[in-house]
């Protein structure tokens, strides 16, 4: 049932052909050991069915589902999706922002597209072993030494702190949302692991 397909640059991808609404297809794809699932089937009902099945087969799975209808978002979350993306709503917002705030849109595109490898936005989790724990952002040297800008911090309890000050304390379990050069982000990732 598993097949491989050659991609450009001599890479291979393993894939399963089948109906993802069937448990046996999800199992054949390794759903029980998977870390994440993205479901983007044509209808909200099909995506809902996949979310329900996948959540039952793997309680720890991180599930992202597409919603065609904005009203389906709540149902998909109740069924077990961790995140729901509504492309038509996002597309509409993007079009409006492109008209109202074109420079902001240009900046975000620059910072999030893979071809602009010199600068990226990243999320980095702080482990208990990190030397950054219990230091302020200023003390950490992220800005001064690495040229990294901390845009936000997601705290362990789920609260989001936007535009933290230089005196904001970095805590174990924090997820830093940062902007910087890829090499420096890699250095921060090593510091974050400890």
Structure characterization notes:
- With 194 residues, the chain is of the alpha/beta class.
- It has two domains: 85 residues, Rossmann fold (3-Layer(aba) Sandwich); 76 residues, Alpha-Beta Plaits, CATH 3.30.70.
- The protein contains eight helices and nine strands.
- The strands form three sheets. A four-stranded antiparallel beta sheet has the order 6-9-7-8. Strands 3-4-5 form a three-stranded parallel beta sheet, covered by helices on one side. Strands 1-2 form a two-stranded antiparallel sheet.
- Strand 1 and strand 2 form a beta hairpin.
- Helix 4 packs across helix 5.
What is the fold named in CATH at topology level of the largest domain?
Rossmann fold
Q: N-to-C terminal Cα separation, in Å? A: 42 Å
- How many whole angstroms does the radius of gyration measure? 20 Å
Low-confidence spans: none
Q: How many H/I helices? A: 8
Neighbour order of strands in the largest sheet: 6-9-7-8
Structural class: alpha/beta
The largest sheet is: 4 strands, antiparallel
The CATH superfamily of the largest domain is known as: NAD(P)-binding Rossmann-like Domain
On the 0 to 100 scale, the average pLDDT is 90
Report the sheet-strand fraction.
15-25%
| Total DSSP E strands | 9
> According to CATH, what is the class of the largest domain?
Alpha Beta
Helix proportion of residues, in percent? Answer: 25-40%
So, CATH architecture of the largest domain? 3-Layer(aba) Sandwich
Number of domains: 2
**Helix/strand order:** EEHEHEHEHHEHHEEEH
